[in-house]
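Suppose you are handed a protein chain with no further information: no name, no annotation, nothing but its sequence. What can you learn? This example shows the usual starting point.
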Amino acid sequence: MAAFTLRSWPTKKKTAHDVTCSRMRIGILCENGDSVGETERSPSPSVKQSPETDRNPSPPRDKADREEDVDAIGDTIYSKNWLFSTLTRLVNMVTEHSEVDSEGQMQLAADDEEDLCRVWDMAMDKDVAGFLQEFKATDILLGVIAKSRCPRLTEICVGILGNIACFPETCLTLSQNEDLGAVLLLLLGEPDPPTLLETSRLLLTCLSQKDVCSLWLQRIRQETSVLFNLCFIMFCSTNTDLLEKVGELVDKLFDLDEELMKSWITAKPSEEEEGANGDSRQDLASSLLEAAKQLRSQSLNGLEIYLHAFQLLTTTEEGIQTFAAPDGPGEVVWDFVCDVVCQDLCQSDDLSVVLQEQKSILIQAFAVLQALYRCRDQWHNRSDASIPLIGTVLRVLQYHSDTKNGDTSKEDTTDEQLQTLAEITAEFLADICAQIPKETVADLVKKGYLTEKTCLTAAGCLAHNYKTSFQHLQSTLSETDPRLADLVREQFPV
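A reasonable first move is to predict its three-dimensional structure. Written in structure tokens, the prediction is:
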């Protein structure tokens, strides 16, 4: 298991184990009060032979076949009785441990763990998920989670609930359980990475179901510890799978609820959110950045998720103000994304392959850079676009121009993502060229980034839609490289 805790966990006033589940029953009883496992079976109807029958009747099905049909869950081969006995054993096991040693950590026997993992897998089947819901398994698992002193057991129980939540009908019933909703949000404060992973997966699954999405958003707005715990995970975890899933959860929340996103980016930690060591909560932007740094060399998919979260933040005035603040995170985010684009993504000479494979993450990266470039004037050390970054922008636009002119495959010309990338890159170039210093233009020419071909491509992108930027670039070229300026003037006369 990957390392997780880099510093001590903050104390909280309440945990998942402190929540009182008033509507929960820890007994496994049927609705009529009978114990489970005693399934009523109707007697087999007698077989009568019709006088018109011209063949012997089929032999009656033996007792084992009839019992097998009654015991099967829906159309599956899974056994009701086995499931009953497994859950009953689970409840008894947790109850006995809590009575003997309520504070000590519980060890899960290998056989019990194997059986519970089978239930976890079985819950992926729609019939089994529905049967578990009818059997009040949500309440049973909630009771186990509340009493559990075994991280592996908690992880499995949350995982089973996560599979049950994959289906709209069962997700609706599960989501309406207020006690479960409270416990799951508090589980985000647990120190066990696998439990955190399954909890994040379950929350993400519920937020993806339109019928219950608003219910979970309301709970998350009301539970202030959610932001604190998510920031702590992103800032401190080194677990790649966990960081990816938490990133998906945060990104989903931002996408669904702009007001929640605004409140989180501007949130200030309260006194009760001070850590046990006196460490205060990390702000949201810094936490997102730390997670992105961790995933940079391990998961491009995870890095893209966090870049998209940054991009969503830059679409709000509150987000821009946070990044633009002199003591804000804007400058360090800018430096990080610049390095990702220039050092990790676009270093290869074969740019066409890079753009095809990494176009999605490049869209997010350039969108973030463009937004940050517009607010850089307020940073302590104002960062103009670096020479390699401008060179990368020119190369991307050159590739798109070659694509339109037939220098690459026909499939590329209809690629919507490549078209989006070209549009974002052209707009970013226009922002850069609106104030580009002549020293920067001279360096671009000297280092081979601004060639005759890339210069004409850049001028073509700017001439029609960004006239102010085009005129400034042409004026600067006239002072630094008259030959290129004349070529631009011939191709795009004013």
